[in-house]
Structure of Acyl-CoA dehydrogenase family protein:
Amino acid sequence: MVASPKLPAFDPADPLGIDDLLEPEDLAIRDTVRGWATDRVLPYVAEWYEKGELPGIRELARELGSIGALGMSLEGYGCAGASAVQYGLACLELEAADSGIRSLVSVQGSLAMYAVHRFGSEEQKQEWLPRMAAGEVIGCFGLTEPDHGSDPAAMRTHAKRDAGGDWVLNGRKMWITNGSVAGVAVVWAQTEEGVRGFVVPTDSAGFSAPEIKHKWSLRASVTSELVMDDVRLPADAVLPEVTGLRGPLSCLSHARYGIVWGSMGAARSSFEAALEYAKSREQFGRAIGGFQLTQAKLADMAVELHKGILLAHHLGRRMDAGRLRPEQVSFGKLNNVREAIDICRTARTILGANGISLEYPVMRHATNLESVLTYEGTVEMHQLVLGKALTGLDAFR
């Protein structure tokens, strides 16, 4: 009789053994980002959130650049050239600290830098990408408008050529992460040729980015309006390699992929807080983690958390193989953000009244995820994307 192999110990932090799917380099990148977030974000983020500010954002951006976290899945121009899975692991660790920090990185790398890298001229790439990868220049991405979010085709921002060949840009963009600290903005506008993207230095005359205050979500993040009043740009400010909504939508798909991973970071942080609390909090003479109803909650949370991480990992492998479809990204964002919010809410019930305190991360993650749920595609939009893919029928209009 052949002896059965000795099974590895059950790991509550990795109950499915997902780490076995990762290469040593994957783990090294994950641990680097986790270590940075542990040292530079976690000790301070509750205070930042309470005050509604992200102090030292430019210094944080440079530090993120130094560890290769900005535009990390892009090739060349000072970018790390990491795999999609490695980028996803970084997003998970950043959002386990706070969604605002992951948003800073996502907007920089997956929206602004990605747009220039994929659709820009060689001159635009050389001018902006190395400095953005190093965190020396922060970027933002202007698509959403005050009256047009889910329907970008109806945007009112427009750009017209004047007699000398320059572009003149007018319009408003809303809910723009990094806006008031950005050195460059990628702005999408209507033109006679269709929707075009423009690389806009934020010191251009007529450009301003007032910061949005009074937020109850993503408070440790810079969110702004972009205002463009007769902003004059040279002819070569336009992104030359794309016309139409394919440009901004492909950027959004890349950023949504990071959300699939990142939302699981917020969920993991909340789950871990609830698990530790359940093992130490006593009621009726025993730890509440010993009661059946609490264990049922913890089990359900763990199942959805690690299913979500497996889904993210699967999508990452498809992206690395060049086989990831936008509908599959919608599948991941729809599922993982919804489940992350449910995990946070369940964790809050385990912590009881302590769950609303900033001494614990749970309510902060829950309120942040309310924004993550609807930005870069609302629940309804992703449902309709999947509905169209499943039925072949377009229900958007």
User: Anything to note?
Assistant: The longest helix spans residues 246-280.
